Amino acid sequence: MGTLKAVANPRASRRAFFGVAALVFVASAALTVAGCVSMQTMSELPMPGGWSMSMTWAPMCGQKWPRVAATFVGMWMVMMVAMMLPSLAPVLWRYHEAMGEAGSMRAGRMTALAGVGYFSVWAVLGVIVFVLGVALMSLALRVPSMARAVPIAAACVVLLAGILQFSRWKSRYLACGRMLTATHSASKAWTGGMRLGVHCILCCAGLTAVLLVNGTMDLRAMACVTLAITAERLAPFPDRIVRVTGAIVVVKGLWMLLQAS
């Protein structure tokens, strides 16, 4: 009886863990879709060079910059939860199991702290992306020659992102992004999650750049990047997935370069 109970508890804990993860994923995905649909109803500003600037980077009538920034970072975080959780959940579960007390409340708290630490790093990245995006768009509005160069610059970014997939940088941080050291210290759980978040950001730098170039509110781009990130983390042969993704992104970059020129 004791053995059956020991087996049943981890199974019940596993179901509960992935059930909660699935609910969080569905909620964040639904909010992301709603946000994208809302943004798509807003007109874009035509720019020299044949592209259009999204209103994501500009305040609407009566809005103040702090509110614009808070809205962007909020949408960014909801989007990142939806995109990263499918590949993060197995890592967090292994961390939960490694605590040696899979059914305990303490293991759950440590796992939650690690997850919050992980996404806090993505929140900081969201702030950086917003500041850089506003600065670049403001410069493009003031300097027409720079606005005309944006399509070529975007194509080069995508091309470099594809090449990055074949680098040792990618292999190194892809391996680091699968590990989270178990600890019974709340502060170390938080910092461990943050460290994992940094590794994931560095690992996904190229794919994140592709997403930003194609539009942060583009559902198709989000879906493709999410599938690529999840596949390269969970597939039995991640190196093959990384190379295939890299080849696709390189072709995309060359096509964009051809169109821009």
Automatic annotation (TrEMBL):
TM stretches of this protein: 73-95, 116-140, 146-164, 196-213, 241-258
Keyword annotations of the record: Membrane, Plasmid, Transmembrane, Transmembrane helix
InterPro entries to which the protein is assigned, alphabetical: PpoB2-like (IPR018688)
Source taxon at top rank: Bacteria
Keyword Transit peptide appears in the UniProt entry: no
Designated name of the protein: DUF2182 domain-containing protein
Species, as recorded: Paraburkholderia caribensis
Record lineage: Bacteria, Pseudomonadati, Pseudomonadota, Betaproteobacteria, Burkholderiales
